[in-house]
Design brief:
The complex is a heterodimer of chains A (118) and B (110). Chain A is built from no helices and eleven strands. With 118 residues, chain A is mainly beta. In chain A, strands 2, 4, 5, 6, 9, 10 and 11 form a seven-stranded mixed β-sheet that branches. Chain A starts with a strand and ends with a strand. Chain B is mainly beta and 110 residues long. In chain B, 36% of the residues are buried. Classes of the chains: A mainly beta (118), B mainly beta (110). At the A-B interface, strand 5, strand 9 and strand 10 of A face strand 5, strand 9 and strand 10 of B.
């Protein structure tokens, strides 16, 4: 069973950069059957897809966030990352990393809460 | 952007009862690209159904999905205590590539 674990700062100041990492175990980020993705959930709200990346380097971003977000894969560390900048209070959310194929995600991390506040 | 509208927002039922959750798309959504997830407090979502009606690995057969036109339905035939959670539908759009979720249905114990 693939395991995913998010990590990163729990507090980010407005206008700065939110950087998160997702460590993958029991699978490889280079597995070309998978797409790796980030999803977030504002407190008490629904789910919002942020971005996805394939090991080939192909990426797709939510149009509403595209100008502020980027994803990358680190094959040497078997992990993938998210960068969002600049952040505002509206970016406060639980951020989940997930993996899957055929347009669904069968593996999810536990999520990490990121608060944007000065 | 394709908007998914889930109903009801909250569903109050007792264990053993049948639950019917609805997800309506604002535009045509291929059944291939419609999925259902379950989320419990403090946990990431769990994939239940993909392709509108196929159960994911390890999902009990009391969970089933169906489609009629633009209306997608998740049915739980006989509720178990562990089924009380929030359920989201999710769709994929090819052009431009992207995903959206419904706002969720909270299934609570009556």
């Amino acid at each position: 069973q693939v395991q995913l674990q998010e990590s990163g700062p729990g507090l980010v100041k407005p206008s700065e950069t939110l950087s998160l990492t997702c460590a993958v175990s029991k699978d490889s980020v280079t597995n070309t059957t998978n797409w790796w993705t980030w999803v977030r959930q504002a407190p008490g709200k629904g789910l919002e897809w942020i971005a996805e990346m394939h090991p080939s380097g192909s990426t797709n971003y939510n149009p509403s966030l595209k100008s502020r977000v980027s994803m990358s894969l680190d094959k040497s560390k078997n992990q993938f990352s998210l960068s969002l900048t600049p952040v505002t209070a509206a970016d406060t959310a639980i951020y989940y990393c997930a993996g899957g194929n055929n347009y669904v995600w069968g593996q999810w991390g536990q999520g990490t809460l990121v608060t944007v506040s000065s | 952007e394709t908007v998914l509208t889930q109903s009801p927002a909250t569903l109050s039922l007792s264990p053993g009862e049948r639950a019917t959750l609805s997800c309506r798309a604002s535009q045509s959504v291929s059944s291939t690209y419609l999925a259902w997830y379950q989320q419990k407090p403090g946990q990431g979502p769990r994939l239940l159904i993909y392709g509108a009606s196929s159960r994911a690995t390890g999902i009990p057969d009391r969970f089933s999905g169906s489609v009629s036109g633009a209306d997608f339905t998740l049915t739980i035939s006989r509720l178990e205590p562990e089924d009380f959670a929030v359920y989201f539908c999710q769709q994929y759009t090819k052009s431009p590539p992207g995903y959206t979720f419904g706002q969720g249905t909270k299934l609570e114990i009556k």
